[in-house]
Structures are given as structure tokens and as C-alpha cells.
Design goal:
about 725 residues, alpha+beta, Rossmann fold, Immunoglobulin-like, nine-stranded mixed sheet, six-stranded mixed sheet, 17 helices, elongated
Length: about 725
């Protein structure tokens, strides 16, 4: 019982005393003599009446507590493949998580909280303890928490408990605002007792057909004491290399580079496997695959020669020998009898008219090429508009530009200045005084720099050693113009040494705007073909790789790009960029997309224009199987074909779920801190109960039942008065 209007203690005591005195004095003397016992009885009844009145003035009440529903706590189980690892006291991680909930969480929290069980991998789904599995190919914790917010929208959730090994293959790294406190419990060992893992696999892009690229991979191991490991390399499923690698100790990374030559006509998948030991904790991470795109449609190269000569003949023949390169050639033959410039043109059907003046005169004509070679051209004969177009060809269209030949640099210094900002090298000062110097006329041998030995342009051998040997055997150039770096972003690929100027850059490249530029400052590179055995491919590989490198990133009018799709079931975003003849974005194109799966199954994708991004269209697909997918895009405008592009995509090349199989505390800690929760160690599960005690939620206010103004209070007071009045009448008092 409580009082709504309680008296102060001193006032209550005083009122009780006054009531007692008044009751006593009321029967101290009576009009009819009564025995003292009867007088005391009547005084006591009156005192109780006064006391009841005082009690009612304090407004007594009875409180009725309202039962409160148990707060909800969703419990999330990681059901990804890594939870199958048996490193939790001899049990798998998913078994340990289920046991922890049934044996610890439910008994400790079940009376105060309502636990609701969920599993997550690719998606969030309700589960039962006896139905848990660890087969999901993906672990998207942040995505599951976001989905959980939607499912409990408008409901009171006290907290969320997550049981996971911390591995996450989702694409989002941050927890959204507004989530309840998240308590994460890490499952699994933080150390790898005995395991080998292939931690990286990359491959370069091929320059030309039969060119070599580096297949690089790294391994880390624990518990094997550095014993040699067998490694196998496969090309489209066929074994091509068997070798061994050795780690220097636990946790140390051992790396290896293997030269390979991808198949040009089809997508080439390289797979590296390291030996699986029967005692390994996770054999699934001993294998990785990587894809090399097929050559694709041929690249168009414009070769502009300042005069006929050996260089043109050999260079044209070398480039034409690559099925992936289409060459249009223009040779300046000098003036005719009328003093007019004449040119010898070799080009494909329909393209010769654009070259009758020796160089394209419109952006559309120039932009139809992917790369341009200016070989010993008198740059002073290019108009200002053509020079401006050449600048735009590189910076805006994304094409490649090569300026080559000693005679070009010594012919007119002023003519070079307008293009100087594009190029990585420029002639040294006072070039006119150098024309007769030994540095220009003496033969000079090319020597690759450290950067050049590994660059796609200079790599003419299957390895760094073979490349050095090939360049050491290459005959000297006829002459080389002394050059200096003109850009801090330039990369020098090769140098020469002259008696007067010492070591000078001879071959250099750089990125400019959206494209690439290159300078070859030598003369008579045809010697690399004429003075070497006929079987030597140094000359062909160098120039073909140069053309491919300059043109490879030159965008087409329809360009495909994909993001995501690393795992089967994960979204694959397909972007298509469409431009017109002058490479201006087209936003009213009709884009059709088709995807062919590993088994040959085909599906159409729906592409729509991306809001706020002109010329960019996007579609999304969900690949369900591992393997190589082929995506084909075709764009039309007003019924006319703009272009098409094809791209291959490797899905599931790496078992990401088993990458570094140790328990990952980083993500679990970030999620807990960001939400105001806590990461709980599996050995201190009692901390979870303590952390949840403050999250039960406020109790409902009790229901107040007033006692003084009820029928029972009235009957009590009336009863006391009736008792006193009845006995007074019986004993002769009025």
C-alpha cells in the first residue's frame, strides 16, 4: 500500500497523538457512570475512527504491477563456408556457435529476452538450431544487418548478437546509422596451426600474339617448417608448368613469377595449385585462377612516314604480321612537278580518302584510329588544326601517339614545341649545333632500364634474363638524338650512352589525359631485323608490343566494363559507354546486352541510362555458377549500328571464403563499436549477460487502485461509527 498524499512524519505523529487525547477525553467523564473497561472500549473505537479518517486524508492506494513482454534480441549465425572449419575444440565453427546458443545464451537470457534466430550468408533467413549449415559461398554481415533493420522496422529490438568468424566477402564495409547495439562473438581460432594458402595471383596483359606476360603468385604457410611445396600451373585446364617453391618460415610470404603466353583467340584461364597436405586446416585456399582477356577486335594504327626508306618497309611488315593490328600507312614522297605534296597511301577500303593530304583533317577521321605513329615527319608541315587534333586524339579520345626518328627531332625545333607537352622526352637545347656531332652519328646500343625490363613494350624475352640477353645482342642504332625528360610523369624504358652527353634517355613513355604517348629517339631500328638471325623476333615483338601498348587502352565507341561478380550469386554490374564518331557521349542509344554462361546458356540483360551520366548505361546480372562468362554489348542509334564490344568475366576464381581462415576480429570489432555494442570473447560469454542487463527496456507504470474512496473504505468508517453508537445506546449513553 502507498499514499498519494502522505503526511510528514512529525505531522502524522502529532495528529495521531491529538486523536488519542481527544478519544480519551471523550469518555473520561460520562453522563451515566460506566465501568472503566467500557469507557476504555468506547474511547478505543473512537480513536480507530479518528485514525481511519486520518488514513483516508493521506489517500491510501494499492499498486498493481503490469507484466512486461520480453525484449527481442535477434541472434545471427554466420552460415558461410568458412564456418565449416573444424578448429573450435575439435568441432566445426558452426557447431560451436549452435552449442554456445543452446547451452549458454538461451539459459542465461531466455527468461528476460526473446531470442529470435537468423542465419546469413548471401542473404538473411530465419533458422532453427538443428537446421544450421555452413555452405554459403558468401558472407555478407553488413548486408545482413541492413536487411535486419528492414525486417524489424517499427519493432523494439534491445540488441543484436552475431556469432561469426569475422570473414566477410560483402561489398559494404560500414554499418548504417540507427542499428541497435550489436554484440559480436568471434568463433574459431585466431591462429592457423597448420595451413598453406595461395594469397595472391595476378597476370599481365599480353602485348601481341605469342608475347610473354608474368603470372605472379604468392604463398604463405603455417606449421610446415619451410619444406618445399609442389606447385602446378594450368592453362585452360591443361598442365603447363610443375615447379617447387619454399617459404622462409611461419607467416612469411613466398613469391614466384612464371612467364606465360596466353591464347589470343579465346579467354585464357590460368590456375595455380599448391600441394595439399592431409593435415592442413583448410585445403580450399590452395588454389586460385585468373583470366586473361582474348585479343578482341583488331586495333587500327596510322603510320605516317616522312620519307620512303628501310624503316617504313620493315615497320609496316612487322605491324601487318600481327592479326590484331590493322595498319594504314602514309609516306611523304616529296613534291611533284607542280610543287604539290604527294603521298603513297596504303589503307583499308574506304579510309584512303581521309589520308590524301598526308594526315587526317577532321576529328572524326583521326579519331577512327587507336594509335598514331609519326616517323621522321616534318612536324612543321602539320597545320595548327591538325596539331590541336593530335592533342585531342590523346587527351580526349584516349588514343596512343608515338613520335620516332632522329630526323624528326632535328628537322624543325619550333614544330615540335606545339606537341611538346604531350611527349615524355624533348631534345636538348641548341639541337642545331648537334647535327654533326658524334652523339648523333655514332652507332649507339639500346640498354633497357630497370623499369624497361619489365615493361610490356621492352619485354622481348620470356623472362628478365632473356630480355636482357636479347637487347645485349641487338645491333646498335644508326644514331640517337640527345634527349631530356620533359615530364615528371615520364618513364624511361631504355637509354643510350654517347661520348659527349653520357647516358641519355632514348625510349620513354607517359600517360597524357586519357591516352598514352611514347618517344623513340633513335634511327635505323631495322638493323634489329637485318643484322640478326632470321629466327630472331626482337624487332617484331618490340614494335608490335609498342603498337598494342599504345592502342590497348584506346576506347572504342562501345566499351564494356564489369564490376563485382567475384563469387557465384554475387551481383555483377555491367557498364556500357557509348560515344559517337567524335567520341561525344550518346545518351539516346539503344543498348542490348547478352550474357553466355560457362555451360553455354544465354540470357538477355536489360540496360538503362545511368541518371546524370551521359552515354553510360548499366545492367545487373547474378551469375549462379563458377566459370567464364561472356558478355556482349551492342549499341544502335536510329536503327544504325554504333558498335559492339565483348568482355569475358571469371566468376569464382578464388575461394574468398577461405582466404586467411583465421578468426578475423577487425570487422567484428568495428561493427560492435560503431553500433554502441561490444565484441565478446568466446571464453568470457558472461560479459554478454552483463552487457544486456541494461537493455531490458523501461518497465510499464503500475496501475493505481485508490482505497479511501472505495465502498470498502466507506463500510469500514460506517462500521466503526455504528459500533460506537450501538454500544453507547446499550449502555445508556446518548
Amino acid at each position: 500500500m502507498v499514499f498519494a498524499s502522505p503526511f510528514a512524519w512529525w505531522l502524522a505523529g502529532g495528529l495521531v497523538a491529538v486523536a488519542a487525547v481527544v478519544a480519551y477525553l471523550s469518555y473520561a467523564r460520562t453522563s451515566v457512570p460506566l465501568p472503566s473497561a467500557r469507557r476504555w472500549f468506547l474511547a478505543a473505537v473512537r480513536f480507530l475512527t479518528f485514525l481511519t479518517l486520518l488514513l483516508f486524508l493521506a489517500e491510501p492506494a494499492r499498486l498493481e504491477l503490469v507484466p512486461v513482454g520480453r525484449p527481442v534480441i535477434p541472434v545471427l549465425f554466420d552460415q558461410s563456408g568458412s564456418m565449416s572449419i573444424a578448429d573450435a575444440a575439435g568441432r566445426s565453427r558452426i557447431e560451436a556457435a549452435a552449442s554456445m546458443v543452446s547451452d549458454d545464451l538461451m539459459p542465461a537470457l531466455g527468461n528476460d529476452f526473446q531470442l529470435e534466430l537468423w542465419g546469413f550468408g548471401r542473404r538473411l533467413e530465419p533458422v532453427e538450431l538443428d537446421e544450421l549449415h555452413s555452405e554459403a559461398s558468401q558472407s555478407d554481415l553488413i548486408g545482413a544487418l541492413t536487411d535486419l533493420q528492414t525486417r524489424y522496422l517499427g519493432q523494439a529490438v534491445a540488441a543484436v548478437v552475431v556469432l561469426s568468424d569475422g570473414g566477410d566477402t560483402g561489398t559494404v564495409e560500414f554499418v548504417q546509422d540507427g542499428v541497435p547495439p550489436i554484440f559480436t562473438i568471434g568463433i574459431g581460432s585466431t591462429t592457423a596451426s597448420r595451413d598453406r594458402e595461395l594469397v595472391a595471383l595476378t597476370v599481365g596483359e599480353p602485348g601481341v600474339v605469342d608475347s610473354f606476360v608474368d603470372l605472379s603468385f604468392s604463398m604463405v604457410e603455417y606449421g610446415f617448417d619451410g619444406a618445399p611445396v609442389d606447385v602446378r600451373v594450368f592453362e585452360n585446364g591443361q598442365l603447363i608448368r610443375a615447379l617447387q617453391m619454399t617459404s622462409s618460415g611461419d607467416g612469411a610470404v613466398a613469391s614466384m613469377v612464371v612467364p606465360v603466353s596466353p591464347i589470343p583467340e579465346v579467354a585464357t584461364v590460368y590456375t595455380v595449385e599448391i600441394q595439399v597436405d592431409q593435415t592442413e586446416m583448410v585445403p580450399e585456399n590452395n588454389r586460385r585462377s585468373v583470366l586473361v582477356q582474348p585479343v578482341g577486335q583488331p586495333r587500327k594504327v596510322l603510320l605516317v612516314e616522312g620519307a620512303p626508306g628501310y624503316e617504313h618497309s620493315f615497320l609496316k611488315r612487322a605491324l601487318s604480321g600481327d592479326a590484331g593490328i590493322l595498319v594504314d600507312a602514309v609516306i611523304d614522297k616529296g613534291l611533284n612537278n607542280l610543287g604539290e605534296s604527294t603521298f603513297y597511301i596504303q589503307s583499308g577500303a574506304g579510309r584512303s580518302q581521309a589520308l590524301v593530304t598526308g594526315f587526317p583533317t577532321t576529328r572524326e577521321e583521326l579519331f577512327s584510329y587507336d594509335a598514331v605513329f609519326l616517323a621522321n615527319v616534318d612536324l612543321g608541315r602539320l597545320s595548327s588544326d591538325q596539331v590541336e587534333m593530335a592533342d585531342a586524339f590523346v587527351s580526349e579520345r584516349g588514343g596512343g601517339l608515338l613520335v620516332m626518328g632522329a630526323r624528326l627531332f632535328e628537322s624543325v625545333e619550333v614544330g615540335l614545341t606545339s606537341l611538346e607537352t604531350l611527349l615524355p622526352l624533348s631534345p636538348v637545347a641548341s639541337i642545331g649545333s648537334l647535327r654533326e656531332s658524334d652523339s648523333l652519328t655514332e652507332p649507339q646500343r639500346i640498354e633497357p632500364t630497370q623499369d624497361g625490363e619489365m615493361h610490356p613494350v621492352m619485354r622481348v624475352g620470356g623472362s628478365g634474363v632473356e630480355t636482357r640477353r636479347s637487347w645485349e645482342a641487338a645491333p646498335a642504332l644508326g644514331r640517337v638524338v640527345p634527349m631530356r625528360l620533359s615530364s615528371s610523369g615520364a618513364t624511361v624504358l631504355a637509354t643510350t650512352v654517347s661520348g659527349r652527353f653520357g647516358e641519355q634517355p632514348a625510349i620513354a613513355v607517359q600517360r597524357f589525359g586519357r591516352g598514352r604517348t611514347m618517344v623513340f629517339a633513335g634511327e635505323a631500328s631495322w638493323r634489329w631485323k637485318m643484322l640478326l638471325p632470321s629466327s630472331d623476333q626482337t624487332y617484331e615483338r618490340f614494335w608490335r608490343q609498342t603498337a598494342r601498348w599504345l592502342a590497348v587502352e584506346s576506347p572504342d565507341r562501345v566499351m564494356l566494363r564489369v564490376e563485382g561478380g567475384r563469387l557465384e550469386g554475387a551481383p555483377l554490374a555491367v557498364d556500357v559507354t557509348v560515344v559517337d564518331e567524335e567520341f561525344v557521349e550518346v545518351s539516346d542509344a539503344v543498348v542490348s546486352l547478352q550474357m553466355k554462361g560457362p555451360g553455354g546458356e544465354e540470357s538477355d540483360l536489360s540496360a538503362s541510362l545511368v541518371t546524370g551520366e551521359a552515354g553510360r548505361y548499366r545492367a545487373e546480372a547474378i551469375p549462379d555458377l563458377r566459370g567464364v562468362y561472356e558478355v556482349v554489348a551492342e549499341a544502335t542509334r536510329d536503327g544504325q549500328l554504333i558498335g559492339r564490344d565483348t568482355l569475358s568475366v571469371l566468376v569464382g576464381g578464388t575461394a574468398l571464403e577461405f582466404s586467411d581462415p583465421r578468426r578475423q576480429v577487425g570487422l567484428l570489432g568495428r561493427v560492435a563499436r560503431a553500433s554502441g555494442g561490444k565484441m565478446i570473447d568466446v571464453e568470457r560469454i558472461d560479459e554478454l549477460r552483463k552487457g544486456l542487463n541494461d537493455l531490458k527496456g523501461p518497465e510499464q507504470p503500475p496501475i493505481i487502485h485508490s482505497l479511501w474512496d472505495s465502498i470498502y473504505g466507506f463500510l469500514l468508517l460506517a462500521g466503526l461509527l455504528c459500533i460506537e453508537w450501538g454500544f453507547r445506546r446499550r449502555w445508556g449513553l446518548r
